[in-house]
Amino acid sequence: MYPPISISAEEVNYLVYRYLLESGFRHSVFAFENESQIVRKLDEYRALEVRPGQLITLLHKALQVIQVEMHMDDDGSERDCEATLSLLNPHNCIIPSEATKRARRKAAAAAAEADREATPGADGATGKKARGAKTQRKGRGRGKNAADPQSEDQGDMMDVDGPTQTTLDDVIVQVQVNGTTDAITTSTDPVITLQSSNERYYVSAWNPIDDHLLASGSLGSVVGLWNVPSDNGALSDATLIAHESDEPNNEVTCIAWSPNGEYLATGTKDAKVRVFTKKGEPVLSFAHPPPGIGELPHNPVLVLSFNPASKLLASGSASGTVIVWNLDDNVESYSSSAHTQSIMAFDWYDTTTLASGSVDATVRLTDVVKGTQTVLSGHTKDVNDVKWDPYKRWLATCSDDATIRIWTRDRAEPVVVLRGHERPVLTIDWNPKPPGNVPQLASVSLDSTIRVWDATTGNCIYTMSCYVLNHCVLTYSPDGRYLACGSDDQYLYVWTSNGHLVKTFYGHGDILDLRYNRSGDRLAVCFGTSRLAILPISSPAAVGAGGAALPPS
């Protein structure tokens, strides 16, 4: 028996209030909150952490139920219909032709078969629930091996079925457009879906020079190279690089492009680092040392980063080791075990100075040529991310201690400590082109808030809501106008740089990774399933008012 349903007028009023607030109707908000007296219940409802766009989400789900009711025959069979179902317009069914029916059934069967084959067993979780195990969070857990072990060092290229073009609703649904006509929009180009029956995509990386070349990482031992068109042109077949090894656990854990766009580095769970050309041809490989007694059974490579000259490659592992490899001479140029626990993030200051953050709660600035280090102490728990601002003036670090700290190159103490989050801060991102050239830093936390900070004063400028269970990602667009955020509640939000919510999408899986290409007209979205979506984005010169951000607190 189903549980009873309860709908109160106060709950409806709160959803309407939130819709008006998020849509930027500020005068209407003032009138409505006083006439409905919802202001008396605001503290109670805010504690429930209602997601942005919840009213639209519920209406969308209600339409789905109505859609089923209207198109279900008495015998339980579904009646095909091509007409759009909306909230207000009367619905008149349009029966598709037999050819259209056959094409749809064939496509649905192929997609179902692909997802079924890609579903792992009990050992196939992505690791998002294991927040305590940092190596699982970086390595995305366990997955199905995609190649038989034959070679320890090199990867083999193999062609697979190419990507497909789909409608938006197939992989990600737009559920809200907030009160503006000139804000960010999806273009008329179709959403592109990259699909493989044997893989589960969790990370991607656009080539920094070639806007059409996308690399994808999966829970298997395969990295994909995809040629993505800029318009409705034909999609080329993809090339997958299999990482073969004598070790059973050789899943790909991280990928990184060199700044010159010529090399792609991959790290795997079996402690190997491999470098390929942009065409997928193997260049070199090396390995991190095995873990010590009493440590993790494996030493996964968790972080990779090329220096700005594309000549040095830094790699960090779960045991805390850092190895820097010289690509020109194919030799190890630096190694260190100064960090005592997993490396979580890298960022280069210049061609020789590397910032690293670790679960050991320290940040280190290392000159990999001289071998000298500066320890930045202050965080009391795991350091999750480190990032230099676009002009290399400040280094931002975030931690499980719920703080963000701003450092300079020549000081071992933070110049500013950003406080306001109530739970661990997962990741951060600098606005590449902030309004008024005032340094802006965005952060997201397990307290389900995104905060945008003035990094010079430490003041919180905007606070936005984004429901987070265990994992969240965020990224600014290259022009700095938009901030995208996705989490394991399957929602993707896009805000303007001044905190206005302009787009809300709902994906078919947890959103594990978001990447804009260099031009900012494509956004790659990884769901941890057999499909990776590429959203076509149009960004006009002027941005409308959009929805309203919450006031900073």
CATH fold-level assignment of the largest domain: Methylamine Dehydrogenase, Chain H
User: Total strand count, please?
Assistant: 36
CATH superfamily of the largest domain: YVTN repeat-like/Quinoprotein amine dehydrogenase
Mean pLDDT: 79
- Which architecture of the largest domain per CATH? 7 Propeller
CA-based gyration radius: 24 Å
* Poorly predicted ranges: 114-163, 178-188, 540-553
Number of helical segments?
Answer: 7
Shape descriptor = globular
Main location: nucleus
Pfam families: LisH, WD40
GO biological process, one term: regulation of transcription by RNA polymerase II
Keywords: Nucleus, Repeat, WD repeat
In short:
The chain has 553 residues and is mainly beta.
Textual characterization of the structure:
It is a single chain. With 553 residues, the chain is mainly beta. It has two domains: 9-48, no CATH class; 155-538, Methylamine Dehydrogenase, Chain H. 14% of the residues lie in helices and 36% in strands. The chain contains seven helices and 36 strands. The strands form eight sheets. Strands 2, 4, 5, 34, 35 and 36 form a six-stranded antiparallel β-sheet that branches. Strands 1-9-8-7-6 form a five-stranded antiparallel β-sheet, with no helix packed on it. Strands 3-33-32-31-30 form a five-stranded antiparallel β-sheet. A hairpin with a 5-residue loop joins β10 (252-257) and β11 (263-268). The longest helix has 21 residues, at 98-118. The chain starts with 8 loop residues before the first helix and ends in a 15-residue tail after the last strand. Mean pLDDT is 79; it is low at 114-163, 178-188 and 540-553.
